[in-house]
Every structure is written in C-alpha cells, then in structure tokens.
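Private note to self, pasted from the team thread so I don't lose it. Backbone tokens:
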C-alpha cells in the first residue's frame, strides 16, 4: 500500500512487548522488515512506547500532522478496525463517546441503506469507504487467520474502548496482558 499510494512517511507503532525479546520493540522489528522493501525515499518513524492498540494511536499522534491536507492512512487488521477507528476519533480528534457512536451509526446506516445490496451482509469491502474521518482513512488488511484469536481480539476491543473512559478497566486489561505474556514466555511460546 505504501508504494501504491506513494506514501512518503510511515509511522510504526509498538514498544517492548515481547518478554522473549526484551530489547526489540514491535516498531523496530517491523522497521527492519520494511526498510529493504520500501527503499530510501520513505521516511520511517518509530513510536516505541506503546504496549496496546489504544497507546499505538495515542502516542503516534505526536508524529502526525492532522492539520495538513495530506491523506493519512491507518492500517489495521479486519478484527481491530472498529476499535482503531474509535480510538483515532477519540485520541486524534478529541471526539466524545456520543459523537463517535453517532459517526459509527451513520456509517452503518449508509451501508445498510445501499440500494444495490440485496441482503443485509456487511463485508469488509463495504466498510472501507466509510471508515474515513476528515483526511484520515482506516485501511483494513485481512491478515487474521485464527478464528480463536479473532474472537479474543473482538472481546478485547470492547474492553479497550471502555478503558478509554474508565482507567481501572484499562489497568485491569494491561495486568491481564502482562500475566498472559509472562505465562507464554515461561513455556517458550510466541
């Protein structure tokens, strides 16, 4: 997508979240992978403090000029798109819970009222054109392969969104993530 859309700056997010590799950030790992593919003309910026999707969005804001006319693409997978869109509207644009809910409801109304659709069957392709706010577009990659992981991510999405408005909920979620990662490392799992 970076080459196709002629993107000249990429912000990669993700901190030190893997206990097995405590010295390597998610953003740094992705940068190592992308640099040879993107070439010299694409500037890569690393945001390496974040541990969660909300923090990815929150901490990346300092590297993004929302006032520019440039298009900004936020890439996520097909399971996290809803929470990523919500978090972009929350952190980058300061919209309230009510405003974000109204925006999402408007998008789904447009999808459901499409006269070309013969049945109510929202597909990822239907969402893509509606996940846009001002100059920011959410780009959905279908790279979720595991049904079990997808279900876990959907459940975590609701908790993360609630955590935006209730610090105790977010603290509990972060603690559960820490315990899970320690357990996985103990048994040598990724």
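Design output:
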């Amino acid at each position: 997508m970076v080459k196709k859309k002629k993107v000249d700056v990429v912000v990669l997010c993700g901190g030190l979240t893997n206990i097995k590799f405590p010295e390597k950030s998610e953003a740094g790992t992705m940068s190592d992978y992308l640099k040879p593919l993107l070439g010299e003309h694409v500037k890569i910026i690393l945001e390496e403090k974040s541990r969660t999707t909300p923090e990815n969005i929150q901490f990346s804001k300092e590297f993004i000029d929302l006032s520019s006319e440039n298009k900004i693409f936020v890439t996520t997978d097909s399971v996290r798109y809803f929470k990523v869109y919500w978090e972009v509207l929350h952190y980058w644009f300061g919209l309230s819970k009510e405003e974000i809910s109204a925006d999402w409801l408007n998008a789904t109304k447009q999808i459901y009222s499409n006269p070309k659709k013969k049945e109510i069957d929202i597909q990822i392709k239907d969402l893509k054109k509606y996940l846009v706010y001002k100059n920011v577009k959410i780009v959905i990659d279908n790279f979720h392969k595991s049904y079990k992981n997808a279900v876990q991510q959907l459940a975590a999405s609701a908790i993360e969104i609630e955590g935006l408005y209730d610090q105790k909920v977010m603290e509990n979620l972060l603690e559960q993530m820490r315990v899970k990662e320690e357990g996985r490392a103990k048994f040598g799992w990724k």
